[in-house]
Amino acid sequence: MTVCFTEDHEWISVEGETAVVGITNYAQAQLGDVVFVELPDVGRTLAKGDEAAVVESVKAASEVFAPVSGTVAAVNAALATAPETVNAAPEGEGWFVKITLSDPSELDGLMDRAAYDAFVAAL
Amino acid sequence: MADTPDHAPPPLVTPLNAAHRALGARMVPFAGYDMPVQYSGILAEHLHTRASAGLFDVSHMGQAFLVGPDHASTARFLESLVPADILHLRPGAQRYSQFLSPDGGTLDDLMIHRPHNPDDDGTLMLVVNAARKDHDFDLIRRHLPADIRLDIARDRALLALQGPKAVDVLVRLGADVADWTFMTAGPIRIGTLDAHASRSGYTGEDGFEISVHDTRAADLWSLLLAAPEVLPVGLGARDSLRLEAGLCLYGHDLDETTSPVEAGLAWSIQPRRRLEGGFPGAERIQFEIANGPARRRVGLKPEGRQPAREGTEIRDLSGRHLGTVTSGGFGPTVGGPIAMGYVAAASAAPGTKVVLMVRGRELAAEIVPLPFVPANFVRRPA
Protein backbone atom coordinates (compact mmCIF):
# COMPACT_ATOMS: atom_id res chain seq x y z
CA MET A 1 0.00 0.00 0.00
CA THR A 2 1.30 3.45 -0.97
CA VAL A 3 -0.06 6.76 0.32
CA CYS A 4 0.37 9.90 -1.72
CA PHE A 5 -0.74 13.49 -1.25
CA THR A 6 -1.84 16.44 -3.39
CA GLU A 7 -1.28 20.16 -3.03
CA ASP A 8 -5.05 20.40 -2.47
CA HIS A 9 -4.56 18.48 0.79
CA GLU A 10 -6.02 15.17 -0.28
CA TRP A 11 -4.51 11.79 0.53
CA ILE A 12 -4.72 8.79 -1.79
CA SER A 13 -4.06 5.35 -0.40
CA VAL A 14 -3.41 2.94 -3.27
CA GLU A 15 -3.72 -0.81 -3.15
CA GLY A 16 -3.60 -2.51 -6.54
CA GLU A 17 -6.04 -0.64 -8.82
CA THR A 18 -8.10 0.83 -5.99
CA ALA A 19 -7.42 4.23 -4.44
CA VAL A 20 -9.05 5.41 -1.21
CA VAL A 21 -9.32 9.20 -1.13
CA GLY A 22 -9.80 11.58 1.77
CA ILE A 23 -8.64 14.96 3.04
CA THR A 24 -5.60 15.46 5.24
CA ASN A 25 -5.44 16.43 8.88
CA TYR A 26 -4.23 19.87 7.78
CA ALA A 27 -7.29 20.27 5.55
CA GLN A 28 -9.79 19.30 8.24
CA ALA A 29 -8.15 21.71 10.69
CA GLN A 30 -8.42 24.50 8.13
CA LEU A 31 -12.08 23.71 7.40
CA GLY A 32 -13.15 23.48 11.02
CA ASP A 33 -16.20 21.56 12.18
CA VAL A 34 -17.49 19.47 9.26
CA VAL A 35 -21.30 19.23 9.27
CA PHE A 36 -22.04 17.60 5.89
CA VAL A 37 -20.22 15.79 3.11
CA GLU A 38 -21.77 15.48 -0.35
CA LEU A 39 -20.37 12.36 -2.01
CA PRO A 40 -20.59 11.24 -5.66
CA ASP A 41 -22.80 8.41 -6.88
CA VAL A 42 -21.18 4.99 -6.99
CA GLY A 43 -20.36 4.12 -10.59
CA ARG A 44 -19.70 7.70 -11.65
CA THR A 45 -16.66 8.25 -13.85
CA LEU A 46 -14.35 10.98 -12.62
CA ALA A 47 -11.59 12.66 -14.57
CA LYS A 48 -8.67 14.03 -12.59
CA GLY A 49 -9.71 17.50 -11.41
CA ASP A 50 -13.47 16.86 -11.49
CA GLU A 51 -15.47 17.86 -8.44
CA ALA A 52 -15.64 14.61 -6.46
CA ALA A 53 -17.18 15.78 -3.19
CA VAL A 54 -18.22 18.88 -1.29
CA VAL A 55 -17.30 19.33 2.37
CA GLU A 56 -19.55 21.68 4.33
CA SER A 57 -18.24 23.20 7.53
CA VAL A 58 -20.31 25.47 9.76
CA LYS A 59 -18.80 28.37 7.85
CA ALA A 60 -18.58 27.38 4.20
CA ALA A 61 -18.76 24.76 1.46
CA SER A 62 -15.47 23.55 -0.02
CA GLU A 63 -15.02 21.41 -3.13
CA VAL A 64 -12.87 18.31 -3.17
CA PHE A 65 -11.44 17.54 -6.62
CA ALA A 66 -10.66 14.05 -7.86
CA PRO A 67 -6.88 13.66 -7.47
CA VAL A 68 -6.88 10.79 -10.00
CA SER A 69 -9.12 9.56 -12.81
CA GLY A 70 -11.30 6.51 -12.44
CA THR A 71 -14.69 5.14 -11.45
CA VAL A 72 -16.29 5.59 -8.03
CA ALA A 73 -16.29 2.07 -6.53
CA ALA A 74 -17.61 3.00 -3.07
CA VAL A 75 -18.37 6.01 -0.88
CA ASN A 76 -18.14 6.35 2.89
CA ALA A 77 -21.84 6.19 3.72
CA ALA A 78 -21.12 6.58 7.44
CA LEU A 79 -20.33 10.27 6.82
CA ALA A 80 -24.03 10.92 6.12
CA THR A 81 -24.87 10.55 9.81
CA ALA A 82 -21.44 11.25 11.31
CA PRO A 83 -19.72 13.97 9.24
CA GLU A 84 -17.65 14.91 12.30
CA THR A 85 -15.60 11.75 11.60
CA VAL A 86 -13.78 13.86 9.00
CA ASN A 87 -12.45 16.03 11.84
CA ALA A 88 -11.81 13.15 14.24
CA ALA A 89 -10.11 10.71 11.85
CA PRO A 90 -9.45 12.46 8.53
CA GLU A 91 -6.79 10.02 7.38
CA GLY A 92 -8.66 6.92 8.54
CA GLU A 93 -12.39 6.39 9.18
CA GLY A 94 -13.12 9.79 7.67
CA TRP A 95 -12.28 8.67 4.10
CA PHE A 96 -14.51 9.91 1.27
CA VAL A 97 -14.45 7.65 -1.81
CA LYS A 98 -12.86 4.57 -3.28
CA ILE A 99 -11.87 5.01 -6.91
CA THR A 100 -10.94 2.26 -9.38
CA LEU A 101 -8.00 3.85 -11.15
CA SER A 102 -8.16 4.26 -14.92
CA ASP A 103 -4.63 5.68 -15.23
CA PRO A 104 -2.29 4.66 -12.37
CA SER A 105 0.51 6.72 -13.96
CA GLU A 106 -1.29 9.84 -12.61
CA LEU A 107 0.04 8.86 -9.19
CA ASP A 108 3.59 9.56 -10.31
CA GLY A 109 3.29 13.31 -9.96
CA LEU A 110 2.01 13.22 -6.37
CA MET A 111 3.89 13.80 -3.12
CA ASP A 112 4.87 11.17 -0.58
CA ARG A 113 4.37 11.77 3.17
CA ALA A 114 7.71 13.47 3.69
CA ALA A 115 7.23 15.79 0.71
CA TYR A 116 3.69 16.65 1.81
CA ASP A 117 4.79 17.39 5.38
CA ALA A 118 7.45 19.73 4.01
CA PHE A 119 4.84 21.33 1.73
CA VAL A 120 2.52 22.00 4.69
CA ALA A 121 5.36 23.24 6.89
CA ALA A 122 6.16 25.87 4.25
CA LEU A 123 2.57 27.21 4.12
CA MET B 1 -9.05 30.97 3.43
CA ALA B 2 -9.19 33.63 0.71
CA ASP B 3 -5.90 35.31 -0.02
CA THR B 4 -5.64 39.05 0.30
CA PRO B 5 -4.80 40.63 -3.06
CA ASP B 6 -1.31 42.13 -3.30
CA HIS B 7 -2.62 45.64 -3.90
CA ALA B 8 -4.93 45.63 -0.88
CA PRO B 9 -4.05 48.06 1.90
CA PRO B 10 -2.67 46.44 5.06
CA PRO B 11 -5.52 45.26 7.28
CA LEU B 12 -6.69 47.40 10.16
CA VAL B 13 -6.32 45.92 13.61
CA THR B 14 -8.33 46.30 16.80
CA PRO B 15 -6.65 47.00 20.15
CA LEU B 16 -7.10 43.27 20.91
CA ASN B 17 -5.23 41.91 17.88
CA ALA B 18 -2.24 40.74 19.94
CA ALA B 19 -4.60 39.11 22.47
CA HIS B 20 -6.30 37.10 19.69
CA ARG B 21 -2.97 35.93 18.31
CA ALA B 22 -1.75 34.99 21.79
CA LEU B 23 -4.86 32.79 22.13
CA GLY B 24 -4.04 31.05 18.84
CA ALA B 25 -7.06 32.43 17.03
CA ARG B 26 -7.41 31.84 13.31
CA MET B 27 -7.38 35.33 11.80
CA VAL B 28 -9.24 36.35 8.64
CA PRO B 29 -9.78 39.60 6.77
CA PHE B 30 -13.22 41.07 7.58
CA ALA B 31 -14.48 44.53 6.64
CA GLY B 32 -10.88 45.67 6.22
CA TYR B 33 -9.83 44.33 9.63
CA ASP B 34 -7.69 41.38 10.68
CA MET B 35 -10.25 39.56 12.87
CA PRO B 36 -10.50 36.23 14.73
CA VAL B 37 -12.86 33.78 12.99
CA GLN B 38 -12.41 31.08 15.63
CA TYR B 39 -10.36 30.08 18.66
CA SER B 40 -11.26 26.54 19.81
CA GLY B 41 -13.79 25.87 17.02
CA ILE B 42 -17.05 27.38 15.81
CA LEU B 43 -19.31 24.61 17.17
CA ALA B 44 -17.78 24.65 20.65
CA GLU B 45 -17.77 28.45 20.81
CA HIS B 46 -21.37 28.67 19.64
CA LEU B 47 -22.66 26.08 22.14
CA HIS B 48 -20.63 27.60 24.97
CA THR B 49 -22.19 31.02 24.33
CA ARG B 50 -25.73 29.58 24.55
CA ALA B 51 -24.87 27.60 27.72
CA SER B 52 -22.58 30.01 29.58
CA ALA B 53 -20.89 33.14 28.24
CA GLY B 54 -18.83 34.04 25.16
CA LEU B 55 -16.53 37.04 24.80
CA PHE B 56 -16.34 38.72 21.38
CA ASP B 57 -14.13 41.51 20.06
CA VAL B 58 -16.39 43.71 17.95
CA SER B 59 -14.14 46.75 18.01
CA HIS B 60 -14.27 46.90 14.22
CA MET B 61 -17.79 48.31 14.49
CA GLY B 62 -18.26 52.06 14.20
CA GLN B 63 -18.97 54.03 17.37
CA ALA B 64 -19.91 57.70 17.29
CA PHE B 65 -21.67 60.45 19.20
CA LEU B 66 -24.16 62.92 17.80
CA VAL B 67 -23.92 66.03 19.96
CA GLY B 68 -26.55 68.74 19.78
CA PRO B 69 -27.98 71.48 22.01
CA ASP B 70 -30.81 69.39 23.45
CA HIS B 71 -32.42 65.98 22.98
CA ALA B 72 -35.24 67.20 20.77
CA SER B 73 -32.83 68.85 18.29
CA THR B 74 -30.51 65.83 18.02
CA ALA B 75 -33.39 63.36 17.92
CA ARG B 76 -35.23 65.24 15.19
CA PHE B 77 -32.07 65.37 13.09
CA LEU B 78 -31.49 61.62 13.41
CA GLU B 79 -35.18 61.00 12.68
CA SER B 80 -34.56 62.62 9.27
CA LEU B 81 -32.32 59.62 8.44
CA VAL B 82 -33.92 56.69 10.31
CA PRO B 83 -37.55 55.55 10.78
CA ALA B 84 -37.44 54.83 14.55
CA ASP B 85 -38.96 57.16 17.14
CA ILE B 86 -35.86 58.76 18.67
CA LEU B 87 -37.68 61.74 20.18
CA HIS B 88 -39.44 59.54 22.74
CA LEU B 89 -36.48 57.26 23.43
CA ARG B 90 -36.18 57.19 27.24
CA PRO B 91 -32.91 58.33 28.87
CA GLY B 92 -30.83 55.22 29.48
CA ALA B 93 -32.51 53.24 26.71
CA GLN B 94 -31.26 51.93 23.38
CA ARG B 95 -33.18 51.38 20.17
CA TYR B 96 -32.50 49.53 16.89
CA SER B 97 -33.09 51.28 13.56
CA GLN B 98 -31.90 51.59 9.96
CA PHE B 99 -30.44 54.29 7.74
CA LEU B 100 -32.77 54.42 4.73
CA SER B 101 -32.33 55.60 1.16
CA PRO B 102 -34.86 57.94 -0.49
CA ASP B 103 -36.54 54.90 -2.08
CA GLY B 104 -36.84 53.06 1.24
CA GLY B 105 -33.91 50.68 0.75
CA THR B 106 -31.67 49.93 3.72
CA LEU B 107 -28.26 51.65 3.80
CA ASP B 108 -27.23 50.13 7.15
CA ASP B 109 -28.71 49.08 10.47
CA LEU B 110 -27.59 50.53 13.78
CA MET B 111 -28.11 50.88 17.51
CA ILE B 112 -28.98 54.28 19.02
CA HIS B 113 -28.59 55.03 22.73
CA ARG B 114 -29.81 58.05 24.68
CA PRO B 115 -27.59 58.67 27.73
CA HIS B 116 -29.24 58.67 31.15
CA ASN B 117 -27.20 61.53 32.61
CA PRO B 118 -29.03 64.90 32.19
CA ASP B 119 -25.59 66.50 31.60
CA ASP B 120 -25.48 64.53 28.34
CA ASP B 121 -28.86 65.81 27.15
CA GLY B 122 -28.63 66.32 23.41
CA THR B 123 -26.13 63.48 22.89
CA LEU B 124 -26.95 60.20 21.15
CA MET B 125 -24.53 57.29 20.89
CA LEU B 126 -24.50 55.28 17.66
CA VAL B 127 -23.06 51.86 16.84
CA VAL B 128 -22.96 50.98 13.13
CA ASN B 129 -21.60 48.10 11.04
CA ALA B 130 -17.87 47.96 10.37
CA ALA B 131 -18.23 47.61 6.61
CA ARG B 132 -20.59 50.60 6.48
CA LYS B 133 -19.12 53.01 9.00
CA ASP B 134 -17.40 55.29 6.48
CA HIS B 135 -20.58 55.37 4.42
CA ASP B 136 -22.77 56.07 7.44
CA PHE B 137 -20.59 58.81 8.86
CA ASP B 138 -20.40 60.49 5.42
CA LEU B 139 -24.20 60.29 5.18
CA ILE B 140 -24.60 61.95 8.58
CA ARG B 141 -22.05 64.65 7.80
CA ARG B 142 -23.77 65.54 4.53
CA HIS B 143 -26.98 66.31 6.43
CA LEU B 144 -25.64 67.74 9.71
CA PRO B 145 -27.26 71.01 10.77
CA ALA B 146 -24.99 73.73 12.15
CA ASP B 147 -25.89 73.13 15.80
CA ILE B 148 -25.14 69.35 15.81
CA ARG B 149 -21.76 67.68 15.43
CA LEU B 150 -20.63 64.11 14.79
CA ASP B 151 -17.82 62.83 17.02
CA ILE B 152 -16.42 59.54 15.74
CA ALA B 153 -15.12 57.50 18.67
CA ARG B 154 -12.01 56.11 16.98
CA ASP B 155 -10.41 55.64 20.38
CA ARG B 156 -13.05 53.22 21.71
CA ALA B 157 -13.02 49.42 21.57
CA LEU B 158 -16.19 47.33 21.76
CA LEU B 159 -16.44 43.95 23.51
CA ALA B 160 -19.54 41.77 23.63
CA LEU B 161 -20.13 39.39 26.54
CA GLN B 162 -23.03 37.18 25.49
CA GLY B 163 -24.84 34.27 27.09
CA PRO B 164 -26.99 33.41 30.11
CA LYS B 165 -24.06 33.76 32.55
CA ALA B 166 -22.82 37.12 31.19
CA VAL B 167 -24.75 39.03 33.85
CA ASP B 168 -23.30 36.89 36.66
CA VAL B 169 -19.77 37.59 35.47
CA LEU B 170 -20.29 41.35 35.31
CA VAL B 171 -22.09 41.53 38.67
CA ARG B 172 -19.31 39.55 40.35
CA LEU B 173 -16.81 42.06 38.93
CA GLY B 174 -18.75 44.88 40.54
CA ALA B 175 -20.87 46.12 37.65
CA ASP B 176 -24.27 47.38 38.79
CA VAL B 177 -26.25 45.81 35.95
CA ALA B 178 -28.41 43.16 37.66
CA ASP B 179 -31.54 45.32 37.35
CA TRP B 180 -30.97 46.35 33.75
CA THR B 181 -33.49 45.03 31.24
CA PHE B 182 -32.92 44.30 27.54
CA MET B 183 -31.82 47.48 25.67
CA THR B 184 -30.87 49.37 28.82
CA ALA B 185 -27.56 51.21 28.48
CA GLY B 186 -25.31 53.37 30.60
CA PRO B 187 -21.96 53.82 32.31
CA ILE B 188 -20.59 50.86 34.29
CA ARG B 189 -17.54 50.07 36.35
CA ILE B 190 -16.04 46.60 35.88
CA GLY B 191 -13.31 45.99 38.44
CA THR B 192 -11.37 49.24 38.25
CA LEU B 193 -12.29 49.93 34.63
CA ASP B 194 -14.77 52.57 33.56
CA ALA B 195 -16.82 51.57 30.55
CA HIS B 196 -20.15 52.08 28.87
CA ALA B 197 -22.43 49.12 28.32
CA SER B 198 -25.79 48.15 26.87
CA ARG B 199 -27.75 45.02 27.67
CA SER B 200 -28.04 43.84 24.09
CA GLY B 201 -26.16 41.87 21.49
CA TYR B 202 -26.25 39.84 18.32
CA THR B 203 -26.73 36.28 19.53
CA GLY B 204 -30.33 36.04 20.74
CA GLU B 205 -28.96 35.51 24.25
CA ASP B 206 -28.94 37.81 27.23
CA GLY B 207 -25.69 39.74 27.27
CA PHE B 208 -23.89 43.03 27.09
CA GLU B 209 -21.93 45.12 24.62
CA ILE B 210 -19.23 47.05 26.42
CA SER B 211 -17.52 50.12 25.00
CA VAL B 212 -14.17 50.98 26.56
CA HIS B 213 -11.26 53.30 25.81
CA ASP B 214 -8.85 51.49 23.50
CA THR B 215 -5.99 51.81 26.02
CA ARG B 216 -8.01 49.73 28.50
CA ALA B 217 -9.44 47.19 26.05
CA ALA B 218 -6.79 44.53 26.66
CA ASP B 219 -7.24 44.87 30.44
CA LEU B 220 -11.00 44.44 30.15
CA TRP B 221 -10.59 41.50 27.74
CA SER B 222 -8.23 39.73 30.18
CA LEU B 223 -10.44 40.47 33.17
CA LEU B 224 -13.54 39.03 31.52
CA LEU B 225 -11.69 36.08 30.03
CA ALA B 226 -10.38 35.14 33.49
CA ALA B 227 -13.95 34.36 34.62
CA PRO B 228 -14.51 30.59 34.57
CA GLU B 229 -17.79 31.00 32.66
CA VAL B 230 -16.17 32.82 29.74
CA LEU B 231 -14.52 31.59 26.53
CA PRO B 232 -13.40 33.74 23.59
CA VAL B 233 -15.67 33.51 20.54
CA GLY B 234 -14.83 34.49 16.97
CA LEU B 235 -16.74 35.81 13.99
CA GLY B 236 -17.65 32.28 12.84
CA ALA B 237 -19.84 31.56 15.85
CA ARG B 238 -21.05 35.17 15.90
CA ASP B 239 -22.54 34.47 12.47
CA SER B 240 -24.11 31.10 13.38
CA LEU B 241 -25.51 32.56 16.62
CA ARG B 242 -27.14 35.52 14.88
CA LEU B 243 -28.52 33.29 12.12
CA GLU B 244 -30.20 31.01 14.66
CA ALA B 245 -31.53 34.15 16.37
CA GLY B 246 -33.03 35.27 13.03
CA LEU B 247 -31.03 38.52 13.06
CA CYS B 248 -30.13 40.28 9.82
CA LEU B 249 -26.55 40.72 8.63
CA TYR B 250 -26.15 43.89 6.57
CA GLY B 251 -24.93 43.23 3.03
CA HIS B 252 -26.59 39.80 3.11
CA ASP B 253 -30.11 39.89 4.60
CA LEU B 254 -30.38 43.66 4.27
CA ASP B 255 -29.18 45.88 1.44
CA GLU B 256 -30.08 48.94 -0.58
CA THR B 257 -32.92 47.08 -2.32
CA THR B 258 -34.61 45.72 0.82
CA SER B 259 -36.95 47.76 2.94
CA PRO B 260 -37.23 47.17 6.69
CA VAL B 261 -40.84 46.06 6.12
CA GLU B 262 -39.76 43.34 3.68
CA ALA B 263 -37.09 42.33 6.19
CA GLY B 264 -39.69 41.86 8.94
CA LEU B 265 -38.34 44.83 10.87
CA ALA B 266 -41.54 46.93 10.90
CA TRP B 267 -41.60 46.41 14.70
CA SER B 268 -38.65 48.83 14.84
CA ILE B 269 -40.75 51.63 13.27
CA GLN B 270 -42.84 53.07 16.09
CA PRO B 271 -46.47 54.24 15.52
CA ARG B 272 -45.74 57.96 15.46
CA ARG B 273 -43.19 57.56 12.69
CA ARG B 274 -45.48 55.28 10.66
CA LEU B 275 -48.17 57.93 10.87
CA GLU B 276 -46.05 61.06 10.39
CA GLY B 277 -43.39 59.74 8.01
CA GLY B 278 -40.63 62.31 7.60
CA PHE B 279 -37.83 59.78 7.02
CA PRO B 280 -36.22 58.71 3.72
CA GLY B 281 -38.42 56.33 1.76
CA ALA B 282 -41.45 56.99 3.98
CA GLU B 283 -43.83 56.68 1.04
CA ARG B 284 -42.71 53.10 0.27
CA ILE B 285 -42.50 52.09 3.95
CA GLN B 286 -46.00 53.44 4.73
CA PHE B 287 -47.41 51.73 1.63
CA GLU B 288 -45.80 48.40 2.54
CA ILE B 289 -47.01 48.58 6.15
CA ALA B 290 -50.58 49.30 4.94
CA ASN B 291 -50.72 46.85 2.03
CA GLY B 292 -48.00 44.31 2.73
CA PRO B 293 -44.65 44.13 0.91
CA ALA B 294 -44.14 42.22 -2.36
CA ARG B 295 -41.59 39.90 -0.73
CA ARG B 296 -40.74 38.92 2.80
CA ARG B 297 -37.75 37.62 4.72
CA VAL B 298 -38.45 34.09 5.94
CA GLY B 299 -36.77 31.28 7.82
CA LEU B 300 -35.93 28.14 5.80
CA LYS B 301 -35.38 24.66 7.21
CA PRO B 302 -33.81 22.26 4.70
CA GLU B 303 -34.67 18.59 5.13
CA GLY B 304 -31.75 16.39 6.10
CA ARG B 305 -28.31 17.68 6.94
CA GLN B 306 -27.14 19.52 3.82
CA PRO B 307 -26.78 23.29 4.26
CA ALA B 308 -27.99 25.77 1.63
CA ARG B 309 -25.71 28.79 1.39
CA GLU B 310 -26.24 32.44 0.49
CA GLY B 311 -27.24 32.85 -3.15
CA THR B 312 -29.16 29.56 -3.38
CA GLU B 313 -32.30 29.87 -5.50
CA ILE B 314 -35.64 29.20 -3.78
CA ARG B 315 -38.37 27.65 -5.98
CA ASP B 316 -41.91 26.50 -5.37
CA LEU B 317 -42.88 22.86 -5.88
CA SER B 318 -43.75 23.58 -9.52
CA GLY B 319 -40.26 24.91 -10.18
CA ARG B 320 -41.21 28.59 -10.28
CA HIS B 321 -38.68 31.09 -8.92
CA LEU B 322 -39.68 32.38 -5.46
CA GLY B 323 -36.54 34.11 -4.26
CA THR B 324 -33.01 33.68 -2.95
CA VAL B 325 -31.27 32.55 0.24
CA THR B 326 -29.48 35.51 1.87
CA SER B 327 -27.85 33.66 4.81
CA GLY B 328 -27.49 29.94 5.18
CA GLY B 329 -25.45 27.43 7.08
CA PHE B 330 -25.52 25.05 9.98
CA GLY B 331 -27.20 25.87 13.29
CA PRO B 332 -25.23 24.18 16.07
CA THR B 333 -28.03 24.59 18.63
CA VAL B 334 -30.68 23.56 16.09
CA GLY B 335 -28.44 20.63 15.17
CA GLY B 336 -29.05 20.97 11.46
CA PRO B 337 -29.00 23.28 8.47
CA ILE B 338 -30.88 26.60 8.64
CA ALA B 339 -31.23 29.54 6.29
CA MET B 340 -32.98 32.85 5.73
CA GLY B 341 -34.03 34.37 2.46
CA TYR B 342 -36.60 36.46 0.64
CA VAL B 343 -39.63 34.94 -1.09
CA ALA B 344 -42.71 36.33 -2.81
CA ALA B 345 -45.15 37.40 -0.08
CA ALA B 346 -47.84 34.96 -1.26
CA SER B 347 -45.45 32.06 -0.55
CA ALA B 348 -44.09 33.33 2.76
CA ALA B 349 -46.43 31.53 5.18
CA PRO B 350 -44.73 29.15 7.64
CA GLY B 351 -45.35 25.55 6.58
CA THR B 352 -44.98 26.31 2.86
CA LYS B 353 -42.90 23.61 1.16
CA VAL B 354 -40.19 24.90 -1.15
CA VAL B 355 -37.21 23.62 -3.09
CA LEU B 356 -33.67 24.94 -2.74
CA MET B 357 -31.42 24.54 -5.78
CA VAL B 358 -28.07 23.45 -4.31
CA ARG B 359 -25.38 22.80 -6.93
CA GLY B 360 -27.99 21.89 -9.52
CA ARG B 361 -29.91 19.51 -7.28
CA GLU B 362 -33.25 20.00 -5.57
CA LEU B 363 -33.09 20.17 -1.78
CA ALA B 364 -36.51 20.00 -0.07
CA ALA B 365 -37.12 22.69 2.56
CA GLU B 366 -39.93 24.32 4.48
CA ILE B 367 -40.62 27.93 5.39
CA VAL B 368 -40.48 28.22 9.18
CA PRO B 369 -41.00 31.04 11.68
CA LEU B 370 -38.00 33.06 12.87
CA PRO B 371 -36.07 32.84 15.13
CA PHE B 372 -34.83 29.25 14.96
CA VAL B 373 -33.81 29.45 18.63
CA PRO B 374 -36.04 31.45 21.02
CA ALA B 375 -34.55 34.70 22.28
CA ASN B 376 -33.36 34.69 25.87
CA PHE B 377 -33.65 38.39 26.71
CA VAL B 378 -34.45 39.99 30.07
CA ARG B 379 -37.50 42.01 29.08
CA ARG B 380 -38.86 45.07 30.83
CA PRO B 381 -42.16 44.25 32.58
CA ALA B 382 -45.01 45.58 30.45
UniProtKB/TrEMBL annotation, chain A:
Any one GO cellular component localisation term in the record: cytoplasm
Pfam families for this protein: GCV_H
Record keywords: Lipoyl
GO annotation (BP), single: protein lipoylation
N6-lipoyllysine found at: 59
Cofactor annotation comment: Binds 1 lipoyl cofactor covalently.
Cofactor: (R)-lipoate
The Lipoyl-binding domain, residue ranges: 18-100
Family: Belongs to the GcvH family.
Subunit description: The glycine cleavage system is composed of four proteins: P, T, L and H.
Function: The glycine cleavage system catalyzes the degradation of glycine. The H protein shuttles the methylamine group of glycine from the P protein to the T protein.
Record's protein name: Glycine cleavage system H protein
UniProtKB/TrEMBL annotation, chain B:
GO biological process terms, semicolon-separated: glycine catabolic process; methylation
Top-rank taxon, per record: Bacteria
Catalytic activity, EC: 2.1.2.10
Organism, scientific name: Methylobrevis pamukkalensis
Residue ranges of every copy of the GCVT N-terminal domain listed in the record: 18-270
GO molecular function: aminomethyltransferase activity; methyltransferase activity; transaminase activity
Annotated residues for binding of substrate: 209
Designated name of the protein: aminomethyltransferase
InterPro entries: GcvT, GcvT/YgfZ/DmdA, GcvT/YgfZ_C, GcvT_C, GCVT_N, TrmE/GcvT-like
Catalytic activity of the protein: N(6)-[(R)-S(8)-aminomethyldihydrolipoyl]-L-lysyl-[protein] + (6S)-5,6,7,8-tetrahydrofolate = N(6)-[(R)-dihydrolipoyl]-L-lysyl-[protein] + (6R)-5,10-methylene-5,6,7,8-tetrahydrofolate + NH4(+)
GO CC annotation: glycine cleavage complex
Keyword Methyltransferase: yes
Family: Belongs to the GcvT family.
PANTHER family attached to this UniProt entry: AMINOMETHYLTRANSFERASE (PTHR43757), AMINOMETHYLTRANSFERASE, MITOCHONDRIAL (PTHR43757:SF2)
UniProt cross-references to Pfam families, sorted A to Z: GCV_T, GCV_T_C
Keywords carried by this UniProt record: Aminotransferase, Methyltransferase, Transferase
All residue ranges annotated as the Aminomethyltransferase C-terminal domain in the record: 295-373
